[in-house]
User: Which sequence fits this backbone?
């Protein structure tokens, strides 16, 4: 089929960085939460974001898949300007997996149902194919035997792993994690981090808001420290953690480490 | 001599009980039971009502209830979604609709639909004349259910919508597959209660008039009361209503208890 060339900026480009954020501002009413953030996440990179409560970490992450509408600035996902009104946001979102602190599994569906819903309704996969993809991802997060369970019958750690598998079932190009282990009992944190470590090793592009400094140090390619709506420090995790340059980073790290 | 407090309270309770029984006895004994039985409890008249009182009247009451419930559920869902819409005119329309039909007596709405609709549109709905009245009942039911459904939708945590949207599901798909199923489950007890209220409100359809085959319980009983010059059929109708409403009310109570536990 020969047609008009696709308008530039609407189709993803393989050579573009996974995420490129330029001078992002976000206000809730009079309250400016993001005050001009610029950062780039390369394909395959694992970027961890730390910072005090209220510094805007969640807002930044949620802006990348437009759960929050930025006040101004530019966000390019694989070269596509997602704030362009021409862009189909739902399509962009299928390429960006999102994992929430509170898991947000659909309680009225089984584990398998949770994993198949969007595959069938958004990607248009048939039931057989969707279930096969779902089972592969459940096996990957170590929950192959729980496909028939309802979320309420799973532990927090299991629920979060199901949530990760649900995102993976859409075959996303990148994953966003917003404090994925903060709602978990300490003994359940390890399993979830293990799954995330595996993902990182497989080359998944990841942006992770976390308080797990060990994970950031060992798995992260970069560490970003945010404070008061700005990126204060951005560098190699081991460097930033061992040798913070900014006084605000030093103050924060001395409190949490 | 001061009585002990508990003794005094016990005596007070006994006095109240004696008074209650005395009043009841006066009422029961002073009524003319023979005359009452003659007007309201005639076996021969009662027997004549079968099987029509079941196969026509009770059946129609149940059918009208189910029709207006299902219709009300559809209208109510649409109105609830409009009321929650970000589009102003939708919201205003839904608000006006809900306020209007909750503010009017249901009897008046049914009356208006039964007589104004055929004149305004020159149409005869199926089961005329009761069909137009039934539409009025659907409209009223929709207004009440809209508020219940809206509460149910709003009770679904925002994280559910966010998770669904971030999987690429559209607002419509999110509403249909994620939010509504959960919202409706939350409101099963109040919806069942709405069903009981509707069952009783089908009695208002008498105002729309009826033919022999469209009579529901109350119309049937009223007409039979006229033809037999006797109230027995009214008592029968009352008992048939209770036969359905009391178990349903129990079901509501059970569902509410179960919901409370599962929270
Ligand atoms: N929907 C909203 N409406 C109004 N204010 C909001 C909203 N969402 C977030 N905020 C405010 O924006 C600021 C930043 O919030 P955000 O959730 O991004 O911080 P955070 O760094 O993720 O904090 P935490 O570590 O507590 O999760 C906070 O002051 C918060 O109160
Ligand atoms: Mg946060």
Assistant:
């Amino acid at each position: 089929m020969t047609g008009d060339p696709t308008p530039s900026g609407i189709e993803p480009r393989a050579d573009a960085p996974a995420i490129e954020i330029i001078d992002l501002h976000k206000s809730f009413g009079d309250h400016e939460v993001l005050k001009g953030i610029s950062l780039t996440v390369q394909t395959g990179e694992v970027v961890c974001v730390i910072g005090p409560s209220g510094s805007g970490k969640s807002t930044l992450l949620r802006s990348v898949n437009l759960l929050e509408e930025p006040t101004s600035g530019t966000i390019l996902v694989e070269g596509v300007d997602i704030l362009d009104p021409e862009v189909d946001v739902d399509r962009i979102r299928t390429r960006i997996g999102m994992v929430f602190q509170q898991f947000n599994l659909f309680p009225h569906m089984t584990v398998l149902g949770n994993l198949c819903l969007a595959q069938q309704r958004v990607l248009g996969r048939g039931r057989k194919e969707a279930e096969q993809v779902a089972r592969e991802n459940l096996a990957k997060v170590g929950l192959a035997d729980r496909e028939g369970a309802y979320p309420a019958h799973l532990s927090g750690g299991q629920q979060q792993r199901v949530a990760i598998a649900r995102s993976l079932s859409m075959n996303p190009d990148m994953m966003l994690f917003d404090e994925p282990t903060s709602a978990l009992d300490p003994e359940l944190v390890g399993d979830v981090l293990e799954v995330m470590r595996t993902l990182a090793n497989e080359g998944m592009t990841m942006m992770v808001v976390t308080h797990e400094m060990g994970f950031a140090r060992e798995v992260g390619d970069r560490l970003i420290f945010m404070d008061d709506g700005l990126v204060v420090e951005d560098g190699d995790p081991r460097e930033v953690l061992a040798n913070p340059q900014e006084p605000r980073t030093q103050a924060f790290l001395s409190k949490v480490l | 001599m001061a009585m002990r407090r508990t003794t005094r309270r016990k005596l007070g309770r006994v006095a109240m009980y004696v008074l209650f029984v005395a009043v009841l006895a006066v009422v029961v004994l002073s009524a003319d039971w023979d005359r009452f039985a003659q007007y309201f409890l005639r076996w021969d008249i009662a027997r004549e009502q079968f099987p029509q009182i079941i196969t026509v009247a009770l059946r129609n009451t149940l059918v009208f209830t189910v029709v207006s419930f299902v219709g009300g559920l559809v209208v109510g869902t649409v109105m609830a979604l409009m009321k929650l819409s970000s589009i102003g005119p939708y919201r205003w329309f839904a608000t006006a609709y809900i306020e209007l039909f909750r503010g009017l007596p249901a009897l008046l709405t049914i009356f208006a639909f039964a007589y104004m609709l055929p004149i305004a549109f020159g149409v005869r709905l199926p089961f005329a004349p009761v069909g137009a009245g039934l539409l009025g009942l659907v409209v009223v039911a929709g207004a009440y259910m809209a508020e219940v459904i809206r509460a149910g939708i709003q009770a679904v945590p925002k994280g559910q919508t966010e998770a669904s949207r971030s999987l690429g599901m559209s607002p419509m798909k999110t509403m249909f597959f994620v939010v509504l199923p959960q919202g409706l489950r939350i409101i099963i007890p109040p919806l069942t209660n709405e069903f009981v209220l509707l069952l009783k409100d089908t009695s208002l359809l008498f105002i729309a008039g009826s033919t022999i085959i469209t009579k529901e319980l109350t119309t049937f009983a009223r007409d039979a009361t006229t033809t037999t010059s006797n109230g027995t059929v009214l008592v029968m109708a009352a008992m048939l209503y209770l036969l359905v409403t009391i178990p349903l009310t129990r079901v509501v109570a059970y569902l509410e208890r179960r919901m409370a536990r599962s929270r």
Q: What stands out?
A: The first helix of chain B runs from residue 5 to 30. Chain B touches chain A at residues 157, 159-160, 162-170, 173, 177-178, 181-182, 185 (CB under 8 Å).
